[in-house]
Design brief:
Strand content: 25-35%
CATH class of the largest domain: Alpha Beta
Helix content: 25-40%
Order of helices and strands: HHEEEHEHEEEHHEEEHEHE
Shape: globular
Largest sheet: 12 strands, mixed
Structural class: alpha+beta
CATH topology of the largest domain: Aminopeptidase
Number of strands: 12
Number of helices: 8
Length: about 280
């Protein structure tokens, strides 16, 4: 004869399945889906076309971008047709050189992966969607001697920041990437650029991107020169951006993080709520 478990056992089982972190994760994922998809992702769009639930976005520099709030229960054949229509749309413009399709791990998307591969899209590494409270990122972090933090807006400072980021990521210094950042500053879409300098030379940097009409600001573009890593500089830069976000009324922070940066943001208090995988097509 089976005996019903005692109430304390049931209570323990419930708490095992529903931890405070699980509740925060569900809360953050709902905020992400309801506030950070479609309009919030494309503040600097030059042109937008709607294809069913898909948002086909044209950015400066010949870049296309595909995103959506959800896929509305679309089946495999519908998704295959949409992928072909997306390529037809962007392919008609000879200036378009690459297109990114931004997928999310928690979306129902039957056959999407195969449809994208079959039409020339190449998946990049999955990234973790990280979210946390802005106030939790604020901290007083001591800096190495001679290192200072500040927000920059001038062209020479932006070019120095961009060159440092290229170097930190192991890329060739790109004038065009610096130009893209300067063009965004001209549009005044809310983006803030923050750097750490040692006696005037940029050694670390990152962007703060407040998302209009939401509770969120994004942490993007984080990079530190190898010789300056592990000394608290990027943590201090993150705390300074969190203070700036709170001044703007942004109580939540988000970032798409590689496996290199995910543990860093987890240590700062952000939680992984899902994944995102960018698929890229190039002409």
């Amino acid at each position: 004869m089976l005996r019903e478990p005692d109430f304390p056992v049931l209570l323990l089982a419930w708490h095992t399945m529903h931890t405070p972190q699980d509740a925060r994760r569900a809360e953050f994922l709902h905020a992400y889906d309801s506030q950070l998809r479609t309009d919030a992702e494309t503040p600097s769009a030059l042109k937008i076309k709607q294809l069913g639930p898909l948002r086909l976005v044209t950015f400066a520099g010949g870049r296309g971008f595909v995103t959506y709030a959800d896929l509305g229960g679309a089946g495999k054949s519908t998704l295959q047709g949409w992928v072909r229509e997306v390529l037809n749309h962007f392919g008609e413009d000879p200036a378009m050189t690459r297109v990114e399709w931004k997928s999310r791990g928690h979306d129902a998307a039957p056959g999407l992966h195969d449809a994208l591969l079959g039409n020339g899209f190449v998946p990049d590494d999955p990234e973790s969607i990280m979210i946390g409270h802005s106030a939790g990122l604020v901290a007083d972090i001591p800096l190495p001697a001679g290192v200072t933090l500040r927000r920059i807006t001038g062209e020479s400072d932006v070019r120095a920041m961009s060159a440092m980021q290229d170097t930190a990521f192991g890329d060739e210094v790109s004038e065009s990437r610096a130009n893209d950042v300067l063009h965004r500053l001209e549009r005044d879409d809310g983006m803030e650029l923050w750097v750490a300098e040692h006696h005037g030379s940029v050694v670390s940097a990152g962007r703060l991107e407040p998302v209009a009409g939401t509770d969120f600001a994004g942490l993007w573009g984080g990079a530190t020169l190898e010789a300056w890593r592990g000394r608290g500089i990027y943590r201090a830069l993150t705390a300074e951006r969190a203070r700036a976000a709170l001044r703007l009324g942004k109580t939540l922070m988000h970032s798409d993080s590689t496996e290199f940066s995910r543990p860093i943001l987890e240590a700062y208090g952000l939680i992984k709520v899902s994944t995102t995988t960018p698929y890229e097509w190039r002409r």
